[in-house]
Description:
Layout: H1 3-9, E1 11-15, H2 20-31, E2 35-40, E3 52-56, H3 62-68, E4 74-77, H4 91-111, E5 116-120, H5 150-164, E6 178-184, E7 186-188, H6 196-204, E8 211-212, E9 221-223, H7 224-237, E10 249-253, H8 266-271, E11 279-282, E12 285-288
Parallel strand pairs: 1-2, 1-4, 2-3, 4-5, 5-6, 6-10, 7-9
Antiparallel strand pairs: 8-12, 11-12
Helix pairs in contact: 2-7, 3-4, 4-5
Amino acid sequence: MEEQDCILANTYLITGGGGYFGYRLACALQRKGARVILFDVRPPDQVMLGGMVFKKGDIREYAQVEEATKGVGCVFHIASYGMSGREQLDRRLIEEVNVGGTEHVITACIANGVPRLVYTSTFNVVFGGQVIKNGDESLPYLPLDLHPDHYSKTKSQAEMAVLKANDALLHNGSGVLRTCALRPAGIYGPGEQRHLPRIVGYIEKGIFKFVYGEASSLVEFVHVDNLVSAHELAAVALGPEKQHRAAGKAYFISDGRPVNNFEFFRPLVEGLGYSFPKAISCPNANYWM
């Protein structure tokens, strides 16, 4: 492999690189000697390490995405909008970022000869509140009109677009685009700011008085470092050294330890010095107090 090809193969662009997971992934790649470009509307709060470059940009603006993908060997498309809180109210922005932004990333990869694209999706592409037991990647997409929120619907549309783009001819004649999608469970880990701080706030305000649902109901979580590893492995599995085995595929990513949603937070509750709500029996439902 020529020197220029080696540099290209070891150069990564992370959309949403200023966020919690994007920065964590960038650090892991940097430790392995990669050149990493963090593309986001705002820089990370943490320090930029050697080999990491922040490029301010908005995936809703194609020209900015096209410029950012030049000279890149792999794109990790993490940027999204509307998962929770007030963000969920702006349906137009959710669609512009999650669907339109993804189309921009795909088009830019093809235009600039980027051979690999890893998309960070979500469990929600198959889940709409229904019970799923022993589900795997053979599950069909949830029909778009059944999604309970616009975020999940648009993430599903984006994943479909990414996988459809697999094997698209690159404009520079160097080959084809290889794509895959990773569907993470709820993310936790050091410094996570979306889920755990909210739970801690409920506990400290005395709101965490009872929990509800079947005690046998299980959910999945994924530690941020496991999710980082999954993305690194996916990028390798899109390349020739692994015979492009991940190309055109989607994978659920979790710790592989299903747990009751509330039991997952028990160590946190008790570690803060609070008593965990105890179970009581109620007519027609199971509530935990």
